[in-house]
Amino acid sequence: xxxxxxxxxxxxxxxxxxxxxxxxxxxxxxxxxxxxxxxxxxxxxxxxxxxxxxxxxxxxxxxxxxxxxxxxxxxxxxxxxxxxxxxxxxxxxxxxxxxxxxxxxxxxxxxxxxxxxxxxxxxxxxxxxxxxxxxxxxxxxxxxxxxxxxxxxxxxxxxxxxxxxxxxxxxxxxxxxxxxxxxxxxxxxxxxxxxxxxxxxxxxxxxx
Length: 208
Fold this sequence. Notes:
mainly alpha
């Protein structure tokens, strides 16, 4: 009986070891200093919370306050109308501005949650509060329609919340609905700041 043929030699492809470059060292140093438990990140997040608290007081004092994030909120709101116009419903197109805005903010919050960054999630919650505050001020103006309106294109300017509430028979409740949205948004903003402070306090301090 003949011996089995020898197995062919196995070859392993050895990849050259990657050398650590200056860019890698800088990137590693930046990541270390910006880690949630690092002193720089801790103080930066505390400063951000203080800024958000100041913005919140401005929203409470002045319903029309927009903040530096106002243009972004407006852009997302108007983009929502362009997205929901494809559904062929004038009611959905009017509601689409706020709906799309909330969807975008929720997507940001989910992305931060998947990255396991609870502090960033609280910032997204605070941002949601600004959306509700703006929607509340807009809703409370449904009957009076004295707020300046923005539209895209050359078509007629329509009041979103008049178009939302009037078909539902809720136009007479615009002040109540607007007030509920506004103060609900303020409460969410305050709660988000409190949660953000809690996440900072729960993070292990360097050297602890």
